[in-house]
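Continued from yesterday's entry.
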Amino acid sequence: MSHEVLRVATYNVHRCRGLDGRVQPERIAEVLRELEADVIALQEVLSRPGGPPQADQARFLAASLGYHYARGATRAFRGAIYGNVVLSRFPIVRVRHYDLSVAWRERRACLRADLELGGRWRLHVFNVHLGTAWLERRRQVRKLVSEAVLRNRELRAPRLLLGDFNEWTRGLVSRLLERELRGRGPLRFHSRARSYPSLLPLLRLDRIYHDPELAPERYWLHRSRTALVASDHLPVVAEFRLNGHRCE
């Protein structure tokens, strides 16, 4: 792998609609450039092919950074594709999309992108956006921690799970994911990593979980002037070192 340190981020971009009510993908792109991350998990991305470049937010944001990208359509939204997107400096060699929807609730999903980091290094990136209802999340996390998704037998590399988990307090989602993946980072960070709402963050909705092969170095909230208004969430960023794991 060419990078000694891997920087990753998760960011709910709220359809690129800022706190001022303006839809400005260019502003989100500015925040993403500030992050200088190798891998970025985005939620609530709205892509409408066939219009101006900014209308296809996934393609526009990837092109603005010069990154590879994968998108997972969660549902249709006014004729556009709405869902999760993974941006990566590294080639994306495989993509999977998992439906986590619960009956009578808004459709939810998990996007998996397998990255080729260089040589025989690989990484399984899972980008998830869970529901807002308590019972809904309980069902979704059980789908997530199953042989169909996180315990899939075809996985041969470290797993990185990022996203908006919509869990206000430490509940079943946190407990199951912490059991499955190491994932919380330094406790001093976890206690203050409140990312929503962006101007006055009160809730820890956006989180990063990881396998032990990913050794955490740093975690932080990105709170630039642009990030404070570009979306209703703040980006959460982390840096890792790979701990001697190769994919043969």
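--- second protein ---
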Amino acid sequence: MIMIILGIFLFIMMSAIGGERGIASVFSVFGNIALLVVFLYLLAWGYNIYAVTLVCGLAFLLITLFAQNGLNFKTMAAFVSILIIMVLLGIIGTFAINMFNIGGFGELYTLDEDMAFLNNRIGINANGLLVSSCFLGGIGAICDTALSVATVEYEVFSNNKNISENKLIEAGSKIGKDILGTTINTLLFAEVGDAFFVWIIFVRRHYDFVELINSKSFLQNILMLVVANIGCLTIIPLSAFLTAKMLSKKGIQKQESQKISNQKKN
């Protein structure tokens, strides 16, 4: 009952503060939740992890970017940038996870007495599941960063159609650097908060530094944090560059069409 009340309260607040965008955000959240449920069932039914992750990742992007912000230069530039970065993160995650074989249950869970009575042979590649987690784990923060950079460049271009491509890239990079610190800290606290149980067990069981850095549970959390931060770092110059290219092309096309129309009038 309390969850329903909180959900209604959230919907009212988002509608009152965000207006149309707030309502769109609510529906995009529900759409992502429904898609996440489908994603988990597909994995549980044994479909290929990488194919399901790629398809659902694209669907998450479409809902998050276009359903909420519409189809325009900002969202298109952000979408292309995010796709490139997500492929990069998938490659990095796959390489690191398979090289060090850190997928699956960490030793903190396998040593737990309750785990002895559970069958953990679920028939799904553990390393593949961790790659999927790395691929999707930072998608929200990466989307936010890419869209912020693209929005700034779009607003600058809207107010000055003759601005150079380099100036647009500079404007996007500047705002990206401004939000970088808060984005990384957001990811840090989200990951630490998610791993409170793990950290408390580390303290209670008196792990020393060597045991800590060799712990699979610790490495899994650090890997996901590092991969998400790499994504947030690399998305800034990439989205700044692609947005500037698209907007500059738009400006050139508009100038050419104006010249043609003027020539026809003369």
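The longest helix spans residues 216-265. The chain has ten helices and no strands. Will compare against the first tomorrow.
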